[in-house]
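Usage

Read records sequentially. Each one opens with the input sequence:
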Amino acid sequence: MTIELPILITFVGYLVLMMAIGLWAYKATDSVDDYILGGRGMGPAVTALSVGASDMSGWLLLGLPGAVYLGGLGEAWIGIGLVMGAYLNWLFVARRLRVYTEFTDNALTLPDFFEKRFKDNKGLLKLVSAVTILIFFTFYASSGMVGGAILFEKVFGLDYTLALIIGSTIIVAYTFVGGFFAVSWTDFFQGCLMLIALLIVPVVIFSQPETQHGLDNIDPAMLQFFSSNTTAIGLISLLAWGLGYFGQPHILSRFMAIKSANDITVSRRIAMSWMVVALIGALATGIAGSLYFASEPLTNPETVFIHLAHAAFNPWIGGLLIAAILSAIMSTIDSQLLVCSSVITEDFYKKWLRPAASSQELMLVGRIGVVAIAIIAGIIALNPESSVLGLVSYAWAGFGAAFGPVVLLALFWQDYSRNGAVTTIIVGALTVVIWKQLEGGIFDLYEIVPGFLFATLSGVIVSKLSTPSDEIKQQFRVFTSKL
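and closes with the structure output:
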């Protein structure tokens, strides 16, 4: 695939726009509250699209269309599971988390919220949760950097290492200077671009003569949601991806940052509409690709969107569509870097080293944290064949199993104790890691299912054995009265 000048100009123009947003956000960032949560001043539309863009990443434009290109609509179950999980997360978690985190002395991060919710003066809960976040997100971000580098490599013909450096530098730059404002507003524009791309590509491709001809000869199995290969364990595993939403720090932080809890309903409607339309577009793109390239199958199915954008559109439009892929990748990595930065700032530096640090000092530490995590993730990503790519599902399952039950129990059960919360996180994370190493039979079940189940049960049992103080119960009752 040769790169054309219009594609290059359009692509670079998009990147310049992202950097301009970062610089604008820098001027609007005056305190550590602004840097970490945007001063809790994000509007419903920005919050909604920021949630969607930071959640879906390159999977929406690369992974899912590629899977459908090969296997047909049977691959849609993971999307159905994600829609169900996202909706329940908005419905049950968003409002309560927004109110409770502000009520508990303006907690800015999940570990900070856990500590204040359970009045853990020893800091054990914050330490366990902060370490879990840093470990999972460092590997998660590195896998995204690999995806970005491969995109630059394929589209522009760059050396892999150079492509990795360029892509990572751009993402780090606007996250470094602008913090949450920059990440949320760039995610907003990236979410819009991703949606437009996923609508335009399948519509245009289906109108092509060769695609119309392919529709008459398509294998009926490609359009079936169930096939002979569908198993109960496989179906449950795909649907269970939705459980991950309850524990994803980069998604939950958007709920914490929305301007008012009263905006949650509007934001939920926007977010779910975006998500459903985008997923339908991704499924349609995969089917369109299987028809368009029926005579010349692609060597790498995950590049189907790139090839369709290049084949069916003029270079100017193609440049924007390819930029949408980078948008999907960037919008997840920047969120992960910001969460890591927040954890370093609030849950390590301020907690253990400099409790009296000024807001300006904390912002500086946060920005240094972005660079540090990015460097570590970049080093891991230097090998494009690194097994870290397989840790994407690890990270999703790990966060979902370790933090999902904690968040739900902390928001809905007044008798949940600190020891129960610590046990939940540890059991959830360990179950995911151990289960992943086992194969065959029931062990083929996606590790988030046993992780979520065992973490919840252990948290409830330990809490029954070590009930929280009357002060913590009273705090919970006051919180519920504010809903």
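Summary fields computed downstream for this record:
- The CA atoms of residues 31 and 359 lie 5 Å apart.
- The mean pLDDT is 86.
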